[in-house]
Amino acid sequence: MSPRDLEARQRRHVLYTWTAQSKAAPVDIAGGDGAWFVDHAGERWLDFESQVFNCNAGHGRAAIIEAMQRQAGELACAHPAAVFEAKAALGEALNRITPASIDRFFLCLSGAEANENAFKIARMFTGRSKVIARRRSYHGASMGALSLTGDPRRMPVEPGLWGVLRAEDPYCYRCPFGLDPASCGTRCATHLEHLIEMEGPDTIAAIFFEGVTGANGGFVPPDDYWPTVRAICDRHGILLVSDEVFSGFGRTGHWFAVDRWGVAPDLITMAKGLTSGYAPLGAVGLRADIADFFADRTLQCGLTSYAHPISCAAALATIELYEREGLIDRARALEPVLRASLEVLQTRHPVIGDVRCAGLFGTFELVRDRATREPLVPYRAATTPADVLALKRALAERRVHISLSRQNLFVAPPLCIEADDLLLGLDHIDQALTEVFGGSAP
Ligand SMILES: Cc1ncc(COP(=O)(O)O)c(C=O)c1O
């Protein structure tokens, strides 16, 4: 069956996500190796999106596949309370790699579920009901996680959960307070104090922030941002939840983005890179005393596929692979290479208004006009401008699979990418930008 026939057959009964079905853009992927994948015609694509910021360990990793196969042969289906080796070992591995504040883990199937459960745990532990989340944020598509989400994806299904308060973003290029980063006093963090005092600290259970903002713009906060947020939480007995679903597992050059600033969250949520997308798995990491709170009280959280054996085996093998190949350090080591290229491209292309980078996560923010900073795509645009579609086409013609979300073009390859392949992909971006927007001579 040709890829086209297969797509038509699939489309007849299976829906695409986050799109009008008539406008869905199928991804033709038949297999892969490292930072590359192949389509059904055998063409190689450079994966600059790691599928959906997911495949951090790279494609076709035998160690993960074999661990899953072994687990499927031994025990593929198990009760949520089942006891087996991969589950115990995964707990130990997570304890090894998460911040020292984190001691125990609740296992689920996705990033959204991880945030749902963190939300419930925060409410049960504190006895408070409100939470704070940021405007340009994404925490998952289920109703609670979408209520935490600030971006427009929540709007068609509102009203969401009651009690989600909005904080401003550490978005220095477009400071929500109109301040200059050199003298702003990190208002994006300090304004939380005012919000908390106005709402009543004893009503707020938790703050949910992405370690480094993912799909909403790749904001890497100023160095004093996370420590300031931590101190504010401590002053008011509010739990700090770091959503590391996107920014975890080496994406920003550390196991978790908060490690970059040495900050210890009370709860941490993860998924994606946890298994590198080889099997569905999410987790909430808890401080020991929060877990102990449930020693004699029921933990009102659960799911049929809790700690699914094949997902546990995939996660364990993935973590061991990150460790064995030093992939987290590798992402940190490649950060200067990526950053330098982003900056060079910025000098060559007036359409690039700002660049941001942490580990192997780079962002080009594209603008219509550098002086006014008008974004290439308005925040709540219902349609995609023709030049953005042309840029997507120009990148696809060069066989670069990449995420262009509103005005942000994200560079997020598997962490095993060779430096030459990283530069090759950036060169393709350079060419595609020139083709669509012109650009200036080097
Ligand atoms: C920061 C963040 N949190 C949560 C999620 C939701 O994860 P999932 O799609 O696995 O439910 C995502 C997904 O992109 C994410 O980027």
Model description:
With 442 residues, this protein is α/β, with parallel strands linked by helices. It folds into 2 domains: 3-60 and 326-437, Aspartate Aminotransferase, domain 1; 62-325, Type I PLP-dependent aspartate aminotransferase-like (Major domain) (Aspartate Aminotransferase, domain 2, 3-Layer(aba) Sandwich). The protein has 13 helices and 16 strands. It has helices at 3-13, 50-53, 62-74, 85-97, 111-126, 143-148, 187-199, 225-236, 288-292, 309-325, 327-348, 386-397, 419-437; strands at 31-33, 36-38, 44-47, 102-108, 130-134, 164-167, 204-210, 239-243, 267-270, 282-287, 352-358, 361-369, 374-375, 400-401, 403-405, 408-411. The strands form 3 sheets. It has a 7-stranded mixed β-sheet, sandwiched between helices. The termini are far apart. The model has no long low-confidence stretch (mean pLDDT 97). Pyridoxal-5'-phosphate is lined by residues 110-112, 115, 138-140, 210, 214-215, 243, 245-246, 271. Residues 110-112, 115, 138-140, 210, 214-215, 243, 245-246, 271 line the site of pyridoxal-5'-phosphate.
Low-confidence stretches: none
**Annotated CATH architecture of the largest domain:** 3-Layer(aba) Sandwich
Overall average pLDDT: 97
Helix content: 25-40%
- How many strand units? 16
Per CATH, the class of the largest domain reads Alpha Beta
Number of helices: 13
Cα distance spanning the termini = 47 Å
